[in-house]
Every structure is written in structure tokens, then in C-alpha cells.
């Protein structure tokens, strides 16, 4: 879900001028950029009616300078969570703090201040169609009352930064989806925020463009030291860019940790399901997966290789251990957070003696495995 709010990053006219943007609070380097403490959000509470609980007891922090992903299925509560950070929603109970300041306690004035410090990008870009790329990026500064020369000095390098130096005069209708999102990113950076929120920013883009936008976000994070909090329903996005991840399911964080750890050994059912989608198994195979085996079925297992095991020729040994019965269905070696990480999906007979032999092999070799399910 995205919220059209083109001026979300706009600063108030009365004090922006050319003055430097005020910090929200005296920040301590070790403190998290964002903290949720026992946060609950209910919608539709009225006259003693309990309402719908969209977020339930969220405890979670976003480290300063990190790229943190929140992943979950549709309706899990991702957008609600992110809207609590920039004060578009208020927690029913608990506290949300940004750089040590409690968002729920801010006045209108304080909220405007907060929104200059927190940039946001959206799935459908939310650009003003009647304005050029330059004028869209300039908008938050115009609203803040910044003078024309300062705006030019700020917007031109931002357009260069996002690779659109030659598209300043183009209207959104003349830009591709990826270029529109680049304008959205430049606009979000116009007020020099310390936190960037991304609401499904690549969901409307093709895989190649997604990749280039994620690369840009990584570069901005590294070069500007900007903390990024992104929500997505795609594990691929998290894997590609996030250093840390939290999995949200029906309003609760069910698993959180470094992306590498969560990806290598998912603990919660929801995480496993999201991962199985990212493995890009053929659709017929994914749809045919069962939780329990029947006689004659095959078991689908994801083998995870990392650290010491990453480059050992263990697959060949597994094949010789189980005989020619092993089928390799998907896999490859990639990097998560700079660490080599391999994953291979294999299938073999789910007969108890075969499964026992395989499990013995995994125990001996230290291979990490995950049963994805069973197929006929
Ligand atoms: N203003 C609202 N009033 C009532 N219910 C709401 C409101 N906003 C969200 N909800 C409900 O809260 C739950 C979480 O919604 P949310 O939009 O946060 O989920 P999401 O994970 O972002 O989903 P999606 O990926 O589909 O956008 C949903 O069941 C939704 O219907």
C-alpha cells in the first residue's frame, strides 16, 4: 500500500530558508535510528469496540547507517509500521522513536520537522505530472521557502547523483519507471534527511530496473551514510540490499536478525515460505508442494552452503551417498553482505531409509538443510 503524499518531505516555510536543517535531537552514535517499543496499532476502535489490531507488540530497532528490510505478505502490517515512523499514523500504545525523539508526542510543528529528516519513496513514485523532473525534486525545497539559487545548487547535483543530469526538463510522462523512481529518490533526498523510508519502491519495476534502483540505494547509503528502512514482500530485494531483516506476519515480528543468518537458517514458517518463492522453483513444483509425504513421494530439500562448506564439492558426495536418485532443481552461489553463500534445491525419494542416509550425511558434513516439502 502506498500513500500519495508528494510533499511528504516538505519542510515548513517559516524556518527552512537557507538555514541548516536542525537535528531532531542530540543524537548518540550508538543509539538506534528508529526504535519500536511494545508498539500496538488498532484501527476502528470506538465506543469500547476493540477494533482491528494491525500491529501487535512490535519491539524492533533500526541501526544507524544500516539498510534494514521489513518483509511480509500483503496485509501483514508493513505500511502501517512505516507510517508510524513518519507520523502519518499514531501508535495505539507503545513508543516509536526516531533518533531518540518519540514520534507520537510531536506537535504539528514537530512533525513537519521530522518529515524533513525522514525522506520517503513510494511504489508508484507519486510524482506531480505537471512538473518536470527538476521541479519535482525542487518541490520540498520550494515549500520550505528556499530561494531559487539555493534550490538550483541543491537539485542539479541530486539529479546527477541519481543519473538524471540530462533529464531535468523532462516530465514524468516522458520518463521510464526506473527514471521516475530516480526522480522520487532525488526528491526524497532534497531536504538532506538522515533516514530514508522505502515503501515497495521496486515492486512496480522489471527485474533489471529493480536491480539498478537497489544499486543506487546501496550507493546512497554508503556515500551519504543514510539509514534506510525498506518494506517489501520480496525476499530477493532484502537479499540484495538489506544488512538486517525483520519478518512480519499478521502484525507481529516473527523473526529478525542479520540478512545472512535469516536467509541461511530461516526459523519461522512465514520466512521459509517467502524464501521458497525467492528460490524461483518452477511454478508447477511450488504449487505441488505438500507438507506431509505420501508413499512414493519425493522430498524437496534446500541445501545451504556457507563459510567453510561454501566451496566444498559436497553435492557430488551427496549423489554418491544416495545413488543416482538425486535431482538438482535449482541453485547457485551468491553473496549476501559480502559473504559467499550457496543454495541448492535437490529432490530424492522420501522413503525413510533414503532420508535417514541423507540426514546422516548432512550431520557428518555440517551442511545446513531445510525441507521445503514433498511432491508426488
Ligand atoms: N486505515 C485503516 N483502517 C482500517 N484497517 C486498516 C487501515 N490501514 C490498514 N488497515 C488494515 O491493517 C492491516 C495491515 O495493513 P497494511 O497496509 O499495513 O499491510 P501491508 O503489509 O502494508 O500490506 P500490502 O503489502 O498489501 O500493502 C490490513 O489488514 C489492513 O486492512
From TrEMBL:
SMART domains: AAA, NIL. Residues 34-275 form the ABC transporter domain. GO terms for molecular function: ATP binding; ATP hydrolysis activity. It comes from Neorhizobium alkalisoli. This is Cell division ATP-binding protein FtsE. Part of the ABC transporter FtsEX involved in cellular division. Important for assembly or stability of the septal ring. InterPro entries: AAA+_ATPase, ABC_transporter-like_ATP-bd, ABC_transporter-like_CS, ACT-like_dom_sf, MetN_ABC, MetN_ABC_transporter-like, NIL_domain, P-loop_NTPase. GO terms for cellular component: plasma membrane.
